[in-house]
Amino acid sequence: MQAVNKMSEEWIKVGDINDIPKLGARIVRTDAGDIAVFRNAEDEVFALRDKCPHKGGPLSQGIVHGRQVACPLHNWNIQLDSGMAVAPDEGCAAAFPIRLEGVTIYLSLTPDDGCPNK
Ligand code: FES
Could you identify which of 17, 63, 89, 94 might form a hypothetical disulfide with 49, taking C-beta atoms 3.0 to 4.6 angstroms apart as the criterion? Predict the structure, then answer.
């Protein structure tokens, strides 16, 4: 966890990709709630509201596999790029845009469209 440095109105710098273990996540605390920033095995980085669409489990504590995270509470799989639950489960966690500049991660606090549970 790290304090957020404002870079502009839109994007905040959350740190270096190497601060996040592969297949792990870190939490960015914002006024609008916690956002989980994930890194997968391919060094892709994703950001989702740290709240499972099932019963609010902490997705940041889940197991990352491929481009999904398995919720630690009841094992729903959530797509890291969209926040959508993988069928047969239904629901979504808000997904937030990520920008990588070299190894530096920037996060937008404006969620992507597509999930009503922002
Ligand atoms: S709270 Fe995530 S699967 Fe139930």
Answer: 94
Mean pLDDT of the chain: 91
Q: Which CATH number fits domain 5-108: 1.10.3720.10, 1.25.40.20, 3.40.50.20, 2.102.10.10?
A: 2.102.10.10
* Ligand 1 center from residue 28 Cα (angstroms): 20
Report how far ligand 1's centroid is from the alpha carbon of 50 (Å): 11
Confirm whether pTM is higher than 0.85.
Answer: yes
Write down the pLDDT at residue 7: 46
Question: Could you give the dihedral angle defined by the CA atoms of residues 4, 60, 20 and 1, in that order, rounded to the nearest 10 degrees?
Answer: 30
Domain boundaries, the chain: 5-108
